[in-house]
Description:
Number of helices: 12
Oligomer: single chain
Shape: globular
Order of helices and strands: HEEEEHHHHHEEEEHHEEEEHHHHEEEE
Helix content: 25-40%
Amino acid sequence: xxxxxxxxxxxxxxxxxxxxxxxxxxxxxxxxxxxxxxxxxxxxxxxxxxxxxxxxxxxxxxxxxxxxxxxxxxxxxxxxxxxxxxxxxxxxxxxxxxxxxxxxxxxxxxxxxxxxxxxxxxxxxxxxxxxxxxxxxxxxxxxxxxxxxxxxxxxxxxxxxxxxxxxxxxxxxxxxxxxxxxxxxxxxxxxxxxxxxxxxxxxxxxxxxxxxxxxxxxxxxxxxxxxxxxxxxxxxxxxxxxxxxxxxxxxxxxxxxxxxxxxxxxxxxxxxxxxxxxxxxxxxxxxxxxxxxxxxxxxxxxxxxxxxxxxxxxxxxxxxxxxxxxxxxxxxxxxxxxxxxxxxxxxxxxxxxxxxxxxxxxxxxxxxxxxxxxxxxxxxxxxxxxxxxxxxxxxxxxxxxxxxxxxxxxxxxxxxxxxxxxxxxxxxxxxxxxxxxxxxxxxxxxxxxxxxxxxxxxxxxxxxxxxxxxxxxxxxxxxxxxxxxx
Length: 486
């Protein structure tokens, strides 16, 4: 199924395509935080809208996307919001900032939040067994609501494929779907593994409706959309309705064709929301500012599940956690037939980026834009000041010197000078010449280790993708310069 998180192990046309265009990454040492508000926020880099526009337009064109819409928020303020390409090819209708796209599994953030609001009101508990609400569902006495939200229930995912199969093209009552898939043998004992399951979220939404005695769309409207002013956002609208983008797919390398939608009953609380970047950024900000759920519930959303074997799931409830970088980033991707979406937020800086596309093979353009913008939204790096040229220029000059075997050894540290023997230099030079000319240079991370500036570049040598790694002392001395295939 295409509404999966970007780091989910499932194979998906929408999630598995790597980002191929990355704005200069910033790698720093900074504290991560799961709190909704951070009083002393780090200093951010400046994001120029004109530069964002040029980068996104180029990425959309290079990757032959049909329609893309992007929103960027920095320090709680929307600094960029623009559509690109076509919402529908048959009418040649352009994407505007009010064009609605299916967000797929980004919906899971909303489903989790609604359920947590109901827990805050004492109407359910995440530690309850499913059997308290629906004893007629399979394995209901073995699985908790928390297991559903954490994707550790063991329930078989009803939509693991990347196309709409024959049963899915037909409408189905939600209860019938749930009884069928909860009635299958569990894929693993609850809590022992993380495995993405739309079945679990469809069931979580069903339980929220049961305890509130309201349809799930009404819960969303009353609790989220209306209070937050998400005036354009809709739940499971009829495809082809005014204001909605058309969804597209592709057969192999052939032309884009209109995608077959899933039948009624197959999406629901697992992925039924349609929205715009501006509306989703309202959601992101309210969530980060503590206006949607309280601190305890926010912790539930942003705390990864510890599995029975001691490993971490890296998924809270409706949030995938990236906590090994400079700052904590909460992400979720989504995709239903014909659409892909990415939503990333940085709580420590009240920043976010939302990207959506109306093609279910658009993972590359979505990831390229999201990853590049998130990198630029990271705080200013604490790498040491270096005498001499910028890292990019210094690295390219080293490549030139290595290729020509005319290395200025006065600029090398003692140990790297000894490491770079004439034999090793000759081998490195030959490998570069054999590969071909350098092109498509992209700046990578710049950080610090051991008092040295650490920087990387990505590029092509002929048709071979390579990356460089350079360490420089504050006086500009190169203590290490290596390159390899990537």
